[in-house]
Design goal:
This protein is mainly β. The protein has 4 helices and 14 strands.
Length: 347
C-alpha cells in the first residue's frame, strides 16, 4: 500500500506541475539560455551566428521525473560599422518530458529583434517571438488508486478519471534589453566590462491548456528579469560573470543568482587577426529556497561547453535525496573573439 501511496503522490505532483500550475521549464545555466530569458537577446551579442544546445535531467532519484532539451540558433542581420541599427533573427525549440505518462511539451518559436546603438558603449533591443506549443503523452500509462483491486493496480478497471488528450496552440512572447559595455585594448588581449539588463514576457496570449474537454485553464504569463555581466580584471587573466535572474509565473516565483570566475589561459594575438580566447571557469549559484548549483565551463575559441549540478535544498530533498539535476550545454559563437570587435561592426 505504501508503494501505491508513493506512486499516487508522485503522479499528483507531476500532473499538478503541468495541469494546475503549468509552470515553464527552467535551467540552471541561464548564461546559455539567452532567448529563454527574452526575445530581445536575439542577435544581441558579439558575433555573427550563435547556436546553443542544452540538456537537463532533473530529480533522477525520483525516476528521471523531468528531462528537458533546448536548441537555439540566432544571429544579426545587416551588421555594419556604417549602420547604427541592425536586426536579429533566431529560432528556439524546447522539449520537456516528465512522469510515467511521459508528458511532453514542445515549443518552437521564431524570434526577431531590432537593435539600435544608443552610444559608443551602449545598445538597446526590442524583440518578439511567436510559434506553436504542442502537448502530448502516453496517458494509458497512468494508474489511479481507484484501480486497486485489493492486491495490485489493475489497468483494465475503469478509473473514472477524465480522459486526457493531445493539443497544440499558439504562443507569443516579447521583450526588451539594454547593454552597456566598455573595452580596454591591449597588445595581446582586451579587458571587457559589460552589463546587460533584459526583460521578457512569455505566453502573452495565455494559451488554453486543453488537457480535457471544455478545459478553461489558461497558461499564466511568465515574466523574466535578468542582469548578466562580465568584468575582466585589468592586466590579469581573471574574469567574473555575475548573473541575477528573477522569474514569476502565476503564484510561482524564482530567484537565481551567483557568478562564474574564469581564468583566461590563452588570449591569442592581434598579429594574425585571430584573437580568440581560451578559458576555464568555475561557478557557484543559488536558486533561492530550492538548490545550490555548482558549475564548470570551458571556453575554447568560438566553442564553449558548460556543466551544472543542482544540490536540492528544498522540501523535496527527502524524496530527491538532494539530487536536484544535472545539466550540460554546448555553444558555438562564430567570431565571438575580439576579431569581431576590431572590425567595429558592433561597437
Amino acid at each position: 500500500m505504501k508503494k501505491i501511496t508513493s506512486l499516487s503522490i508522485f503522479l499528483c505532483f507531476a500532473l499538478s506541475g503541468f495541469v494546475v500550475r503549468s509552470q515553464d521549464i527552467h535551467f540552471s545555466q541561464y548564461n546559455e539560455t539567452p532567448l529563454y530569458l527574452s526575445p530581445a537577446n536575439t542577435g544581441f551579442y558579439n558575433g555573427y551566428v550563435r547556436a546553443i544546445v542544452n540538456y537537463r535531467n532533473q530529480w533522477a532519484a525520483m525516476g528521471n521525473a523531468f528531462q528537458t532539451m533546448g536548441l537555439s540558433v540566432d544571429g544579426g542581420l545587416f551588421k555594419s560599422k556604417k549602420r547604427p541599427a541592425f536586426m536579429g533573427l533566431g529560432l528556439t525549440i524546447f522539449n520537456d518530458q516528465a512522469g510515467a505518462a511521459k508528458i511532453r511539451k514542445t515549443t518552437a518559436l521564431l524570434n526577431i529583434s531590432g537593435l539600435i546603438k544608443t552610444g559608443r558603449h551602449s545598445a538597446i533591443s526590442v524583440g518578439l517571438a511567436g510559434g506553436t506549443m504542442a502537448t502530448n503523452g502516453n496517458y494509458n500509462n497512468l494508474t489511479y488508486a481507484s484501480q486497486f483491486n485489493g492486491n495490485t493496480l489493475d489497468q483494465s478497471v475503469a478509473s473514472g478519471e477524465a480522459i486526457y488528450r493531445q493539443y497544440t496552440n499558439v504562443d507569443v512572447a516579447a521583450g526588451i534589453a539594454y547593454e552597456f559595455a566598455s573595452y580596454k585594448y591591449d597588445q595581446d588581449h582586451d579587458d571587457v566590462s559589460a552589463v546587460k539588463i533584459s526583460f521578457g514576457a512569455f505566453h502573452l496570449n495565455r494559451p488554453n491548456e486543453e488537457y480535457g474537454k471544455d478545459s478553461k485553464f489558461r497558461m499564466p504569463v511568465r515574466y523574466a528579469f535578468a542582469v548578466n555581466s562580465v568584468f575582466d580584471f585589468e592586466d590579469t587573466r581573471f574574469t567574473t560573470q555575475p548573473i541575477v535572474v528573477y522569474q514569476m509565473q502565476g503564484t510561482y516565483r524564482e530567484a537565481f543568482l551567483g557568478t562564474y570566475v574564469k581564468f583566461r589561459m590563452n588570449t591569442g594575438t592581434k598579429v594574425t587577426g585571430e584573437k580568440t580566447q581560451n578559458a576555464m571557469g568555475i561557478g557557484l549559484f543559488y536558486r533561492v529556497k530550492d538548490a545550490i548549483v555548482a558549475k564548470l565551463i570551458a571556453d575554447i575559441g568560438d566553442y564553449s561547453i558548460g556543466l551544472a549540478y543542482d544540490i536540492n535544498t528544498s522540501g523535496y530533498r527527502t524524496a530527491s535525496k538532494g539530487v536536484g539535476g544535472f545539466e550540460i550545454s554546448l555553444r558555438y559563437n562564430n567570431l565571438a573573439s575580439s576579431l569581431f570587435e576590431s572590425r567595429k561592426e558592433y561597437k
